[in-house]
Amino acid sequence: VENLAGGCIVRKASFVSFRAIGKQVFLWEHTAGDSATAAPVTTAPPPPSTSLAIQLPESVARNGVSVFESADKQYLSVCIVTAAKTVHRFCYKLDPVLNFADAARDEVAFAMTSLPLQTSISSVCWLDECNVVVGGDNGAVLAINVGLSIFGHSASSFHEVPLTDHSVLQWVWEGLGFQPTNKPQPIIAIAAVPDLVDDDSASSDTLVVTLSADLVLRVWSYEHQSCLCNQSLRPHLELAAAAADLAVLHFIPSSTDVRVLVHASSVTHPSKNEIVLLRGDLTSKVLDLDVVRRYVVPAAAARLVDFVVVGPSSTSSQQLVSVWRSVAEDFVYVFPISRTGPKSYYLDRLFAPNRFSAECIRHALSAASTAVSGAALRRLALEAVHRECQDQARREKQTDANAVRVAVWLQLLQKCTKLWAVENIPLGVASIQGSLVLLRRNHTSILFPSTRAIIATTGSSSSSVHHDDDELSALITPFFASFSHRDVRAAVLCEWNVDLHVDLTSPSLLDTLRRELQRGLVHTNQGKSLPTLLARVAPILAGDATAQSAVLTALVDNLALLDASSSSSSPSSSATAAPPSSTDLSLALHRMGAVVVHDMLAATYAALGFLSFLDDAQPSFVAPATLQHISTALLPRGLALLRKWVFYQWLFDQPSSPDTPAMLVQAFARHDDDNDDVQLNLATAVLDLLHKVHDLPALASYVHATRQHDVVRVVVRYALQHPTDPDDDGAVTMYLTRLLGDALVAEAVVAYELNHERRHITHILARAVRSYITVLELEHRSTTTAAATSQLYEITGHLKETAPRPYAAKFILQLLHASLVFHCSDDVTGATEFIWYNVFKLALTERLYDEAHVALHHVVARANSATVDECVRHFVLQLCDAGRVDVVVGFTWGALDAKVEDVLQWQAANTHANLTIKRASQSAVSVLRLLYSFLVKRARFAAAAQAMHALFVRLEPDAFHVDVLRVQRDALLAATNVLALVPASQNRWFIHQEPKTTNRTTDPLRVVTASDLRRELLIVRGKLKLVGSSAAALAGQSGSEVVSLLLKHLTPDGTMATNVALAVAIARAIDMDVKVVVRAVARDFAYSSGTESLLQALLRHAHSPDAYLAAVDTLLQSHAPLPTWLTDAAVAAGPLTAVALLRLYLDHGVLDEAVALAIDHLVPKDLSQPAFQQAAAADTSPKHWMPYELLDKLLGACDTVGGDDVAPLQHNATRLKQRLAEYFQYVHVVDAAASIRRQHERRPTASSISSTTTSSTPMTWSTN
Q: Taking every annotated instance into account, which residue ranges of this chain make up the domain Nucleoporin Nup120/160 beta-propeller (predicted)?
């Protein structure tokens, strides 16, 4: 037997199953449906709602997994023992449902130390969630207690207690130096011994049985920590192999003896496919089990997988379900389990109800104590029979134990019968005021009058009519007695149970009666004797219509024993009273009352059957007027009487409570008797009992006090349909209707606990609410407004306390809506405020937000400010937790807008800004986002921007995680965008209050503008770029630090340009000098810690002459070579950048680069003829500005330098001088030409022009 799967029911609502496969344990949770409507085993189960896989270090030991629900139903324990000798316990919370998440789990693991290293675990048995018994392959038995710190409530612990076997003298032989000849056998099965159901002993010891491979059953005690006794089961199990490999033990709960199912098998030898039922004595002192039955499976070569006993504890309906597997297919066999053996049979006969008295049994057992009764007396009888069996077996030397046991039980039963007969020997009879008393030896029997005699005392009709109806009743009652009335009774029961079932319809009682009559006449022998009956009835109805109607009316009147017309026959108060009644006498009165009710019901069935036959057959001897009287008057009244006697018959069959043998009517009569006496006239006493039961309001009140809600419902339903007090002013009806509503709510609670269908529970609660509405209507009509309000308070409170929680809100809402009709808006009792306040709360529970919104406005109109504030806060937070932000934003709050905003502001200020909080109302992030949406919807853009900025500030201390930074970025983006929606005519800013500090007593205020938001947004974007490199240091970093980190941690990839641009943007936004950034990057580049591409990208995005000069200056200071692109870009950055660059060269003594810069960029190069002509024709001098002072300084520095290694420098200096000389000569010529042009333009004469023309000779540019 491999127990690799199992499960348990959790909170009566779900089924948690497990499967152990290798090193994993898989758990599934399924919804547990109603057992009455459960699907067949051949259909697929519903898909699991949740699942889990537990990974273990080693495979699970045999039977090593069990699942338990805690006693307080707060968590589920998964208990595991592995083959590696480790014990694991996993606990999962059940509040409100099973949660397999890591946050709702607690676990503990311990390693065993008491088992040797070479010992393997062969069997495991979990007693409960904290105690486990482990068996080893060396025969060792270990008791382990595993305590777990259940979510911090208790300290974890682990205790191991080895159990020793003192039943053999092994320790003696080992002490003398002898080794045991038999090797210890492995433990192959372990089971806990259940307590007897009726066992009320004070012993608290826990017994465990183990079955070893040699088929020896041992009983172990937790209290003694040792083996107490053992028994070999090899003769009973009939196993061919020398040792068993697999076995299973399963105890069947019983109130009288111990019964255990055993199966053992061997791998090497084929075993019988059977499960053996053993029964006998198993205590701490005695172990004696015998075979009672063998459940044999006919399948060949099958192996048992598992078996279980299902059904209630009553053994008459228990079944053994076993699963077997063969090579070809799988089998499922179901065997009924019933009581067997003489002990159960004779014990049930001995203690059968009303069989023997306790005194008789004690006398038969020769018991000294007279106080022993109940379970103690049963145990005393078992012990006496057991001793007598042992004595007779020893005296007579009989080997058949069963025969001896049967003989002893027969002797005890015969002795009890003899003693009971002797005690009940009649000795005489006496009469006490007309009542007969039979005097026995030790008892007194009262002879009650017959039903006919009791009815005869209440008759009021004339003697002739009375004689005729008696004769008629005597004829028809035996005739219709054999007819079946099952359908008629079922139809009446349907009328009572319409409140419980949705699809239940009550058939016509008259039609049902006619079908029963037709079936009886056709399918029974009574139909053949019908002509005889009519022949005998015809003379009785021989008169005219008046006489016939009188006889038939008297026949029906005799059935109305408890109607108002017969109230005059009720017992008078002047009757002589006897001493206080005893329990035996009240039981006798109850039984006699039940007999009277049964006889009246039989007479009613017969009378209705006869009248229905006359109405259908219309015999010729019945006058038409009589038939009309039957159809219009007698049949309706007869059906009402039929309902009454069916009700009273059902009522007399009801017990007082499930735990007591007393009957309901008996207990009510004793409780209702103020003088605690009965009448000596027994007929009057029986009538008195019936009249007490006829007081249905008092009966309903008593049954309601005993909490028998199913009985209350039927009694109240019948009382409301058949009122007995014509002078009722509505108070009794109102009281009964309230009881009906309470009973229906209790029925709904029972249906909910039994997992009935939802529509079934809904139907019952709808009927209950309908009853409560009727109560409120009656209260409103007949009493004051204050009383009606008090009734409303009581009913609402009762529903809140008792109705099933998933259904309560819906039906209380129905009640409150209906009650608004009875309470005007200007009432002074506060009922309207109470109604709307509860409608608001319950509508929120049902997530009916529109209805809750309407109710809230009604509460605002009637309640004080504190209540309104509490309702608004509750509403808003409930919507937050439900994720219904659209409702908060979209509702028209009207005058409550300010309160909603205040609630959100306060909640945001007093909750944590943590992104991992699941409840939205407890997260400042969610609340501020909701506040933002709320304000945007109302076009309050500046306030909305302020809310998003507040979210950014709240997250600033935790701004080192990417998720937090993204939330900050989104908040600033939203604030920037929404602030842009503010009209230009208004101020686009808001006030931010700085947090308090220790050295500051006031809270300074700061104006936040759009530029501030953009600056903070740029910094957050920079932090997002740095999350992967220095995330822990980002919180609280300033903008300059972010720029530095950005430039420090950038890599030459595709995003470098974007990041550099971001760094430059941040620097400009925080008014930071870009030259500082450039110098830092240039310095890194100079010392080979930075890249040239980074410097180039930075300068390109800065695009400032000062930035280029700062980079050159830094490189020169660091004595680093200047890249060509840097000098070219610096010169191209501005018209005067070359001059500033020359000055830097001179400051740092870089003459080669300075001379090259002067030649290339400071001295003009274009001295061509077109340039000369253009310059000469210009009105102004074409002089090019040059830094003469710097050039003189440069040339002077070059002249002072000497040596062979400066030859290139001297060469370049000579070139510079030549270029300067050429430029100066060029400028001089251009000035002269321009001067001549201007002179000619002032005096334009012909002679001058001709002379100039004739004297001019062609020349080239080189000659000038």
A: 48-338, 344-450
User: Do 54 and 101 touch, CB atoms closer than 8 A?
Assistant: no
pLDDT tens sequence across 791-802: 888 888 888 888
302 in Cβ contact with 324 (< 8 Å): yes
Cα–Cα distance, 1195 to 1207 (Å, whole number): 14
End-to-end CA distance of the chain: 124
Rounded Cα gap, residues 311 and 69, in angstroms: 21
Any idea how long the chain is? Answer: 1264
Question: Measured between alpha carbons, how far is 601 from 559 in angstroms, rounded to an integer?
Answer: 8
Give the confidence band of 1251 by pLDDT, cuts at 50, 70, 90.
very low
Residue 261 forms beta bridges with which residues?
A: 250, 277
How much is the CA Rg of the chain, to the nearest whole Å?
A: 53
Q: Are 312 and 283 in contact (CB under 8 A)?
A: no
Measured N-to-C along each axis, helices 1010-1025 and 962-979 cross at an angle, to the nearest 10 degrees, of 160
Q: For residue 143, what pLDDT is reported? A: 93
- Are 69 and 10 in contact by the 8 Å Cβ rule? The answer is yes
**pLDDT, tens digit, 9 for 90 and up, residues 132-148:** 999 999 899 999 998 76
Cis peptide before 579 (omega within 30 of 0): no
Tokens of 668: 């009510």
- Tens-place pLDDT, residues 1038-1078: 656 666 666 666 555 555 666 666 777 676 666 666 666 77
Task: Report the CATH architecture of 1-34+47-126+136-157.
Answer: Beta Barrel (2.40)
Closest by CA position to 303, among listed 279, 270, 276, 334: 270
In single-letter form, the type of residue at position 832 comes to: T
Q: Nearest-CA neighbor of 842 among 863, 813, 814?
A: 813
Q: Looking up tokens 């970025």, which residue turns up? A: 969
The pTM assigned to this predicted structure is 0.55
Q: Mean pLDDT throughout 345-370? A: 77
| Tokens at 291, concatenated | 């075979």
Looking at beta carbons, which pairs linking 723-727 to residues 24 or more positions away fall under 8 Å? Answer: 724/564, 724/694, 724/695, 724/696, 726/564
* Residue in the block written with tokens 């009927």: 767
Buried (b) or exposed (e) across 459-494, using 16+ Cβ within 10 A? bebeeebbebbbebbebbbebbeebebebbbebbeb
CA distance 943 to 948: 9
Pairing verdict, β 989-993 and 318-325: unpaired
In 3D space, the residue among 106, 26, 107, 29 whose CA is nearest the CA of residue 60 turns out to be 26
- Report the candidate in 281, 512, 490 with the shortest Cα–Cα distance to residue 382: 281
Q: Tell me, what amino acid is at 225?
A: Q
DSSP assignments along 286-340, one per residue:
-EEEEEEEEEE---TT-EEEEEEEES-SSGGGEEEEEEEE-SS-EEEEEEEE---
Supply 610's token pair. 């006869």
Element (H, E) at 111: strand 105-111
H or E element in which residue 949 lies: helix 941-954
Q: Which of 1038, 1042, 1110 is nearest to 1073 (CA)?
A: 1110
Range 899-902, long-range pairs (CB < 8 A, 24+ positions): 899/868, 899/869, 899/872, 900/872, 900/876, 900/934, 901/931, 901/934, 901/935
Largest distance between two CA atoms of the chain: 192
Distance CA 85, CA 122 (A): 11
Instruction: Decide if pLDDT at 189 tops 90.
Output: yes
* pLDDT higher than threshold 80 for residue 222: yes
The proportion of the chain whose per-residue pLDDT surpasses 90, expressed as a percent, equals 5
Kind of pairing between the strands at 14-21 and 216-221: unpaired
938 neighbors 897 (Cβ within 8 angstroms): yes
